[in-house]
Design goal:
Chain lengths: 193, 234
């Protein structure tokens, strides 16, 4: 319920254009919130989603397919052109909302199954990508998004760099803190508490 | 040395689940690649500007008729009157977008245009290539302000002219056609994507060149003028 209310708030109120009017708010507030909404929705999944998940489960062994899809969706919305298009086109914005919500649901269903190795691979991939994208945005001599100001782009870059690093460090700390006996490998700490 | 042979039923079961897992990964990979390919025009571009330049190079865009004022206060069509001086062959144009109150990017652009003007004169290309600076600041940039700007920049009237659309609608149409997006800053300034837009003698936008490559823009404009002139000769 919270997830649905939050999505409605993000999609159908002036909050959408408010967040999308700044590159920093767009990339560091709206996009992660959409992913979080998907995750929260899956955490309290209604019956139809549970039965759907049960049916597709065998195609997502070890969470590999799910984490791959989540990475690809996250990558897509870090591409400046995709971000620009989502500001100028409602259709693309709808695609952005749908794909990130899906990514959240898929991430929830794949995270625990992936185990420490799969998680390490996913976290390494995503945080590295965020950090590199952040550095590029900070240092770009020109605006990469036609919709946003230079200063905003630099803030967004710094934010991406920090968020990527924070997620990586948080995951690693959780991994270090987890019990080390063999049976606990399947009980790696969740990404979100 | 021989590996343990699993029972047939277990083997076929694990085979199925392996196949399903592999299919899942393949579908996820393909979906992801398709999504990224869509966003990057088939892994070719990362930015809107690059996509725009690529599209224009592949498919020229006709520049619509838009009424503008020039720095003399003469009302004309943005391209066609500026292009076609009676009794002279049509010229290709290099178009940029500016506003005269600009304190940042436009001065870089102005420097590039001064350099282009020097090159055009030095190479004797005045009858082939023309420079056009279009101001999108329709509220402030009166003909007087354009004239002052032309004077400040040392623009030669036969090479480099300044115009402003005489309506907000005309401005929006031009910005859209050329793919220029203007974003307001808090201090009353604007940021906009700057590039050198090459328009051929038919009035088609044929190339968008980075502002750090004026030589490339001049070559493209000369080619556009030569090509059209040759094509136009019976």
């Amino acid at each position: 319920m919270i997830a649905i209310a939050l999505v409605a708030l993000l999609a159908f109120t002036p909050l959408r254009s408010a967040l999308e009017s700044s590159m920093t708010a767009h990339m560091l507030v709206q996009l992660p919130l959409l992913l979080l909404c998907g995750w929260l929705f899956a955490a309290r999944a209604p019956r139809w989603l549970l039965s759907l998940q049960a049916r597709v489960q065998s195609w997502n062994a070890g969470g590999a397919a799910g984490l791959l899809l989540t990475s690809a969706i996250a990558t897509t919305w870090m591409i400046p052109r995709a971000l620009d298009l989502s500001v100028t086109s409602n259709t693309v914005d709808a695609l952005k909302f749908a794909s990130l919500l899906l990514a959240g649901v898929v991430l929830f269903n794949s995270w625990r199954r992936a185990g420490a190795l799969g998680q390490a691979f996913f976290i390494g991939n995503v945080t590295w990508m965020m950090a590199v994208a952040g550095l590029l945005l900070r240092d770009a001599p020109v605006r990469v998004c036609t919709s946003y100001l230079t200063q905003d782009q630099q803030y967004a870059g710094t934010g991406l760099l920090l968020l990527g690093t924070a997620i990586g460090v948080r995951w690693f700390a959780g991994w270090l803190g987890a019990p080390t006996d063999a049976a606990s490998v399947q009980r790696t700490p969740p990404l979100l508490h | 040395m021989h590996p343990a042979v699993p029972s047939p039923s277990r083997r076929s079961g694990s085979k199925t689940s392996l196949l399903r897992a592999a299919t899942g990964v393949a579908v996820a990979l393909l979906t992801g690649l398709l999504l990224i390919a869509w966003a990057t025009d088939g892994f070719a571009v990362l930015t809107t500007d690059a996509a725009r330049a690529r599209n224009v190079a592949a498919t020229p865009v006709a520049v619509p008729a838009v009424a503008v004022w020039d720095q003399r206060g003469v009302n004309m069509d943005v391209l066609h009157d500026a292009l076609r001086t009676p009794g002279q062959p049509p010229r290709a144009i290099i178009v940029d977008f500016i506003f005269t109150r600009c304190i940042t990017l436009c001065s870089t652009l102005a420097g590039v245009y001064q350099q282009l003007q020097r090159e055009i004169v030095a190479q004797g290309l005045e009858d082939k290539v023309r420079l056009l600076s279009v101001s999108f600041d329709v509220e402030h940039d009166s003909p007087e302000r354009l004239a002052r700007q032309a004077l400040l920049m040392g623009a030669r009237p036969d090479v480099w002219s300044f115009v402003t659309p005489n309506s907000g609608m005309g401005r929006d149409l031009l910005l859209k056609t050329f793919g220029v997006q203007v974003v307001a800053e808090k201090n009353g300034q604007w940021q906009h994507n700057a590039a050198l837009h090459v328009v051929n003698t038919n009035g088609d936008l044929v190339r968008i060149v980075d502002i750090d490559d004026p030589a490339g823009a001049l070559a493209a404009a000369t080619a556009a003028a030569t090509y059209s002139a040759t094509a136009g000769t019976p």
